[in-house]
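Subgroup meeting minutes
Present: P.N., E.W., G.H.
Scribe: E.W.

1. P.N. recapped why we're keeping a running log of single-chain structure predictions: easier to compare across weeks, and new members can see raw inputs and outputs side by side.
2. G.H. added today's entry (330 aa).
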Amino acid sequence: MNKNRDKIAVVIPCFKVRAHIEKVIAGFGDEVWRIYAVDDKCPEASGDYIKETCTDPRVTVLYNDINLGVGGAVMTGYKQAIADGATVIVKVDGDGQMDPSLVAFFANPILAGEADYTKGNRFYDLEELRAMPGIRIFGNAVLSFMTKFSSGYWDLFDPTNGYTAIHADVAKHLPFEKISKRYFFETDILFRLNILRAVVQDVPMDATYGDEVSNLKISKIVGEFLMKHCRNFFKRIFYNYYLRDLSIASFELPIGVALMVFGVVFGVGEWISSLNKGAVTPAGTVMLSALPVLTGLQLILAFISYDIAAVPKKPWHRRLLDRYKSANAE
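Output recorded in log:
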């Protein structure tokens, strides 16, 4: 890490974190260039509290006039960090659940040109999972599975983990006005990154649970997340397989779905008809129903295999740098 060149900024969304924010800010090391604490219309006036108690010259307090949610607060910080010339922007929650000393672990893969975006994963160490509430383990497993389909990042887990880092050049190209402003933020940004073909890496980390109270209730947002995942899935498939490019997978998915639907509808219809007549369904009719289902399933699995292999491998900001160097060389 070159401290003279690499400027690591930290964004902390602040909403009901007054009891923990001082300790969080104090935990950042010398590798951090600037710290942006975003008061998201906090009822505890976290922003004013930080100004009164914090003497760290790296800290800048930003205010949202209305509560925008965690996503809106993070994007407020992103915009200011980009304007100030940050290289990497790390997002850390202010509730004390994330270790501030891990900033370098999230920034280094980006600075090394290995990734455009990094995010925490609390599921690497199975022993550490004992400290995580059971409902969170189950909820994150369900959300992770849905995220793989909607975002296209099949190698990632723990999608609601808020410890993230992003290269500023990549952040510049994100449609801030379209990204979900509240708890779907971390998942929605993965979808946007896939559309950019950005490389995302998981960073193993431990979670800390103390007396903080989480504002996220997984049981209440699974339904909302499911609808938004479906929306993003269809958008991603359309953008990547029909609008931007056309491949064998572009045909495998619709043909596979059509065959499965035909087989199921035809089979159920013939089964009901046989029940009404009190007759045994002919073997040929059974095969006529089963064959499209099996063929369709194979085509869908082939599409998923293609989609898994299509996970971005070359960092987006590296491609941008290569194009810039090539243009200057000419």
